[in-house]
Amino acid sequence: MYFPYLRGRQYELIALRELLENNKLGSAVIPIIEPVRLSPTLVSTLEGFKDKRQKCSIVMNPGVGSFLEEYSDFSKSNLATRLDSLIDESENFYYVSLMSKDYSLEENFKSIADIGKQITVCKKPDDLQGYNKNYREQETAYNFISEIGRLKREVQGNKVKISDNFVKLARNTDYSYKDDEFFSDDHKYFIEDEYKGFSDYSIVGEEYSESGFAPYAVAIHIVYFDSDENLRIHHFVSETNQDPTNPAGKFKEALEKLITFVNEDLVERTLAINEFEKLYKTGSYPGLGTVKKLSIMHHIELVSKYLDRISGDSE
After folding, report:
1. NCBIfam families from the xrefs (predicted)?
2. 3-state secondary structure the chain
3. Is the pTM of this model over 0.85?
């Protein structure tokens, strides 16, 4: 099973929605959404998963963003009511609790009775205190752990490996100095390593920042399979990076590099790659949020196709 972990920003939610609408999420993919805002896009995306009877997960005690404050805000009561109804009615959702040293069930914005629909996340040894106090004797659906020996020894049952495979650099220009690197082989070895699945933060990375700024360079991050079916990531970076002006021109420079890579049959075609090709042919600039959206879509669809292939579910 693959559990792409996304923070629920607008472009991440739209990425999931477009994959869902185009039937590009296989049964072995269960997205996890850590909501950073209580937004119409969040609720409509979850409604789409419910309507399609596609599995997904929502973090009940998000550690970043302003979701918890907004959930209690009377001005957003309509969205909160819709979200509550989804949680009460959907049979295909899982509910994630982020463990910490002092975690308690009261941190979750809504209580969930069915333990078989719950997921825990432990990323450091201190998180075990919250896990042991609240979930150790419970038969949760899955338990996410980072690759720390103590966590693997002490967390009970249905373990999922969670990793941050994206090496985040301070500036987009820095990616041009190492434009191709190893990304992951978790999809190959998770069963051998005695995990029920694997999880990552796609091409965004675990680090979360509220602030945005105009970058000097545009970088398109695309994962692909090498000859050994390891996932590698290639960074396509613009050339004219002296100042933050002309993002459309910088995008064109980066996109030209990506299209050359695609034409050399180095990247498996996906819905997102087809969209990048359309943007290249029309000379359109969709904005940096859409660039991230397409890169996420490509990664998730690629892994979904791989898992379908090895399980015999591919068309």
Report:
1. sce7725_fam
2. CEEEEECCCHHHHHHHHHHHHCCCCCCCECCEECCCCCCHHHHHHHHHHHHHCCCEEEECCCCCCCHHHHHCCHHHHHHHHHHHHHHHHCCCEEEEEECCCCCCHHHCCCCCCCHHHEEEEECCCCHHHHHHHHCCCCCCCEEEECCCHHHHHHCCCCEEEEECCCCCCCCHHHHHHHCEEEEECHHHHCCCCCCCEEEECCCCCCCCCCCCCCCCCCEEEEEEECCCCCEEEEEEECCCCCCCCCHHHHHHHHHHHHHHHHHCCCCCCCHHHHHHHHHHHHCCCCCHHHHHHHHHHHHHHHHHHHHHHHHCCCC
3. yes
